Amino acid sequence: MRRLHACLGAAAAVSLAAVGTTALVAGNASGATTALSNRWYAAAPYLMPLDNDPPDPVAIMDATGLKAFQLAFILAPNGGGCSPTWGGTAAVSSDSAVQSVINTIRSKGGDVSVSIGGYGGTKLGQTCSDAASTAAAYQQVITKYGLHAIDFDLEEPEYENTAAIKNEIGAAKILQQNNPGLYVSVTTAGTADGTGWFGKQMLLEAKSQGFTPNNFSIMPFDGGFNGAASQTSALTNFNTILQSTFGWDQTTAYAHEGFSGMNGRSDTGEIFSQADFQTVLDYATSHNMDRFTFWSLNRDRQCNPVDNGGRTSGTCSSVAQNSWDFAKYSVKFAGATPPTSTPTPTPTPPSTACKTAWSSTAVYTVGNEVSYNKHNWKAKWWTQNEVPGTSEWGPWQDEGTC
Predict the structure, then answer these.
(1) Confidence (pTM)
(2) pLDDT tens, residue by residue, 71-106
(3) Which long-range contacts link 191-197 to residues 24+ away (Cβ below 8 Å)?
(4) 158 tagged catalytic
(5) Catalytic residue among 155, 158, 168, 205, which?
(6) What are phi and psi for residue 156, nearest 5 degrees?
(7) Which long-range contacts (CB under 8 A, 24 or more apart) does 364-373 make?
(8) Residue 92 main-chain phi, psi, to 5 deg
(9) DSSP code of 354?
């Protein structure tokens, strides 16, 4: 979620005031306002503000009533080091682009959480020397943007690194202690059994450090899932894991459990429709789960032309939809009611001119753009003689038809 970069009856009726608000109030130049209720941060869908054809957050807010966005992803610098960047390339310390997005959202009465980690890239838990230095790096992000919420997206390949996970969990605990009221979610991979071996080891690390976030969320997709029934089954199994790991009863475990889905076509070709989202939403609200989110708003629009699930894209869902259909389920989870009228779908930008054709002999570095098979592609890292589109995990990011 994450990928292509890569969590519900009576609770929905609870008023936002009853859910409670965080106590943290920013005191810097970030433009931060009083925190939203925790329920909004729990419902915030992921948005890449610098990549994958970022949509206009104001348009989404106006069309759906959404107030909170989960901005992704904070990584270590591509060249190494223990300082936060957006996507490994844009230093947080000198950022103005993401700050502008945040200011725009806040000017409309909304707010953001920031997600660290994700699928791919080098994480700060891998490059910082210990939990304290990892926390110090993340504190820079919290301070600069006046954050009231943060998400630790711990998955491949980082969660296979014991030392890195120890740093991340330790950093999360430090941030929680040093920022009273900070909403903290931890997101990890989902399996049919709930989560896999590495996910269970991460939970044991949290237990050993005495760390309890607002929720542990799983991502039940890209693992042989088939619609909502398989996802709710995984959530049930994950609840059992939380109970056995932390000694919680079922109700307490659900109160610390979250869902993070993928709208439309997943990386492995699974299809999750609007009806699937509604089913999982009903499950989450009826079990009083703490989080319901998805990857991503960049994908919450119909492909042009419609490809009926033929490919996975970072900029559209590959299923038939109106723009921002999936965001409305997050709004419902937050306890708000989306507008009843169906907005006119935001048109997907028309096909653009093709870049210079890809060459098997040329060397490409991060950011280089080429065309191949009537699509434009952007290099995610150094590459040579790797055909665009042959692997979903390869060095090329699909930028759409040309």
Answers:
(1) 0.80
(2) 999 999 999 999 999 999 999 999 999 999 999 999
(3) 191/220, 191/223, 191/234, 192/223, 192/224, 192/225, 192/230, 192/233, 192/234, 192/237, 193/234, 193/237, 193/241, 194/218, 194/234, 194/235, 194/237, 194/238, 194/239, 194/240, 194/241, 195/238, 195/241
(4) no
(5) 155
(6) -60, 145
(7) 364/395, 366/78, 366/89, 369/399, 371/402
(8) -65, -35
(9) P
